[in-house]
Each structure stands twice: as structure tokens, then as C-alpha cells.
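Exercise 3.2. Students should predict the tertiary structure of the chain below and write it as C-alpha cells, then compare their answer with the key that follows.

Predict this chain's 3D structure.
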Amino acid sequence: MDVRDYFMPYQVRWLQDQGRRKIWEKSRRIGATYVQAYEDVRDCVAKPGLPVWFSSADESAAKEWILYCEQWAKIFKTAGAILKIGEEVLDEKNDIRALVIRLKNGSRLMGLASNPKAFRSKGGKVVLDEFDWHKDQRRMFAAAKPCVTWGFDLRLMSTYQSKTGLYAQMIRDARKALEQGKAPPISLHSTDIFQAVNEGLVDKIFGRPTTAAERQAWLEEERAGCFDENIWQQEYCCIPMDEADAFLAYSLIYTCEDPQAGKPELAGGGPFYVGMDIGRRRDLTIIWVDEEVGDVLWTREVVKMKGASFAAQDEELHRIFEHYRPRRLCMDQTGMGEKMVEDAKRRYGEYVVEGLLFTPMVKQDLAYAMKRKFEDRELRLPVDQEIRRAHHAVKKTTTVAGNVRFDAERTEAGHADEFWAHALAVHASGDALIEPAVAGADPDFDTYRSGRAGGFRAMWGRLH
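Answer key:
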């Protein structure tokens, strides 16, 4: 059978990954257990005598998996003919029981409760479903991992429960390895509800091809039905929640996401505004292009560059200027940005290009200006998990001296670079000059301000 006739693209990718160890960061109810049951029956048919051990966070999930396995075993007909289905006692002393399907070729599919003792002295393929929700996931993994020692496969799938568990750590380690260009310790798959919908989930539910408007309406209805935004984010969006100190809540970011944003081909006649956050070795370089449509700034393009030479960054910025002819470009002038700002001013005009020194006061003004745009729904940004995470990563903290700081944890994915590039584009669209709250409070800012304030105000008036 052709799996593409039965499964959606993200399910097919899971099946086609032949790695021994796989982990799936996933939304709820996207058919992960369903396709895993197919893989398990397929393996049992292909490998006579194979034992498959499946455990989920509760017994009902194991029963659901057994029903799916029974369905697939019947589809495989003779090769997967069922010999027996029922509950069996595996360890009478410890009261370990399993729902078992025995195939005529000697293979067994066994659904277990979430009990680490059930995996002791066992061998075979292991599937841990809703892994982050097991009562003691570390003990479960410690008991289950040795079962696959003799060349068997390991499968982990889950939505998030927290940011601190073993499952979350495995995801971070795998993603970090991939970002560094290394082979991850476990093959990572990630499917949030948006990707699932884009790849046919709503079509499957409706039983027919759906329109973009229908898919968007379905997403909005599902989200509204969660009542609590944290539920939507963790259960459907593959985002472990920690909202306490985030400057932009996910609920605020979602209100400004639009599937039509981030598509250069939809750009109109402008005006366009560009923000550029400059990185070289550790952080990303992000060029963010906004188009003003009425009173809304639509994201038209987001360019991400990692480890790119300054020459390559200059070339990409020139492409942006040639294509969009932006009215204004705002750039991070801090540190390595000094030369790039000077070069850009020389090439595109000193009144078109503005460099900003990222002092605490400037970052505060940039952050609050963008938050006001989010609150007024005057932004449209792409439906993109990494962009969403970068915007949510920025945290507002107050030092013991009472100074406000805006910063984000530095990861392999960057340092909230998309947030700052976006904030610079938003600033580029406005006519307000950033000023410190108290004159002389920030010497670095005073130096920056003295060189460009008067000339910029005059030119900005002429442009508008």
C-alpha cells in the first residue's frame, strides 16, 4: 500500500524516517498514535517474532493504540493475521498486565500502563506515548531504554507538560545539535497544529478539500474553545509554558499572526520599512521588512542569516533595497554594527538609514513601542514557530538599582533576534525620535543623539 493514500505528509515523514531512535514534539489529536500503530504492525509483519512494548500516560491510550493495531493488522491480511487479542498477565507477583495482540508469525503488540516495573527484564521495540505526561518519566525511560539494546527501535511522542522534564531536555538537545550541523542523539520531528492544518488535518476532519478561510476559522474556533491560552499553547502549539515574566504573552502574539504575512509575493506598493539586527558568530542576522497598509504593518519578508560574512550581509541588504525601495532602514549600531551602519548610510543616504545604539533606554523604548502595536493589532506577522518563540523570549526585568532591562536567553536559535529586528522595523515606520527619560542619564545615548537628531527631524518632515 502507498502510505500517502492513508496519511498526511507529516505522518508520512515519521514513517519514512528509519532511524532507531525518534522523538515527536507534537500537537494533540493530529494522528500520531494512529500512524505509530501502523508502523508497529508493519514492523511486526516484516520481522516475525518481534515484541513491541507500548506505554502511554494512561490505560485508555493503550487501549486506543491496540484498537488501531487491530485495524492495521486486518489490512495487512495474511501476513499480519491475528492469532489472539486480549489481556494477559505478564508478572503476577507485581500485577503487571498488558493488552496483547498476537500475530500468527509470533510477533506481539503489547499495551502497558505507565509503570516502570513493566519494562524490567524485557526486550523489543519500545514506544512511549505522551512521554512528558508519565508520572515519573525519568524512571520510565531508565527502565525502557535498555529494552532496545539489541538493535530494537525506540519511539517517544508527546505534547508538553513543562519546560523542565526529560522530554523537553531531549527536544532541546536534538534541536541544538541540528542547529550546529551535527547529528542529533535522537531523530527530531515537530508538528504543531498550524503545520498539521497546512498539511491536511482539517481536510481530513471535514472529509473534503477546505478553503484557507475555513481552515483559519477552524483554528480560531479550536483556540477559543480552550478558554485558557496556556492550554492552547501547550496542547496544540508545541510550546511549554512559562508566561510569568514574558514581555509579550503568546496570547498577544497570536492575535497578530496571519497566514498571508511573510510572503514577499503579496507585497504591494509600499511604503516599506526595514529593521536589521546584526549578528556574526553567535547570533543571527535578521532583516525584517514591513509594508504599511492603512494603519497596519504587514510583514512581507524575514531574512535569517547565521554565520554569514559581512560582505554577504551587505549583499542581502542591497537586494532588499533594490526590491522594496524602503523609505527607512533602522539598524542595530551596537558593536559590530558600527561599520555596517556607516556603509549603509554612504550607500543609501544618511537620512534613509538610522543606526541605534542598543542601550537599555533605547531597548526599552523599542520594546514598548512594538508592544503598543501588538495591543492595537496594528501588526501582522507570519505564523511561524521560531518567530513566535523569539518574540516571546524577551523578558522585562528590574535590577536591584531599579533599572529596567529587556533581554532574552541566548540559545542556538539566537538571542530573540527576530524580536529586535521587528522592533527596529516598527521604529522605522514611526516619526518619533527615541529620547532618554532624563537628560544625561545615558552617556552612550547622548553621544548617539548629538550626531543625528536635528538632521533627521528635518528630513523626516520632508519625507512625510
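Discussion points: The longest strand covers residues 296-306. The two ends are 63 Å apart (CA to CA).
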